Amino acid sequence: MATQPVSFSYQRLKVLREFDRDEAPELSGADVMRLTGLGSGSVYPILVVLEERGILRSRWEAEEPQTLGRPRRRLYALTDLGAELYRRAAADVAPVRRGVPSLRPSEA
Q1: Within a 10 A sphere around the Cβ of 48, how many other Cβ atoms?
Q2: Shortest CA distance to 18 belongs to which of 92, 94, 83, 100?
Q3: Element counts in the chain: helices (H) and strands (E)
Q4: Residues whose CB falls within 8 Å of the CB of residue 50, separated by 6 or more in sequence, listed in order
Q5: What is the pLDDT of residue 5?
Q6: What is the largest CA-CA distance in the chain?
Q7: Alpha carbon of 2 to those of 51, 68, 82, 86: distances in Å?
């Protein structure tokens, strides 16, 4: 359960939107960067804060780095609390978004 109040900036909503999809139950930080167009200096601090607040949970890939041929990735997923809070926040901003650029770079 979240212990501190959470504010949802435009960038945080942009990150959370990518987790609120059936086809993306878990995403790495690199996935989030690719999907949102945000840089690592924005994405990783957002992921840390959202995990600390109970909105995301994370785990390390189970496979060995030697098998993967690369370092393990930390995978993040939306918690039930996170999904509820995100959907409320997204609904709150939807009426005021008219004329505001899309949350997705590909929709702009």
Answers
A1: 13
A2: 83
A3: 5, 3
A4: 6, 12, 15, 16, 56, 76, 82
A5: 67
A6: 49
A7: 9, 34, 9, 13
In the chain, beta strands by DSSP E: 27-28, 56-60, 74-78
Q: Which residues, including other chains, have CB under 8 Å from residue 91's CB and lie 6 or more apart?
A: none
Contacts made by residues 57-60, CB under 8 angstroms, sequence distance 24+: 59/26
> What is the chain's pLDDT, residue by residue, as a tens digit (108 residues)?
445 667 888 899 999 999 988 776 899 999 999 999 999 999 999 999 999 999 999 999 988 888 889 999 999 999 999 999 998 888 877 655 555 555 555 554
Handedness of CA 75, 30, 98, 21 (dihedral sign): negative
Taking Cα atoms as reference points, which of 4, 107, 74, 73 lies closest to residue 17? 107
pTM for this model (two decimals): 0.78
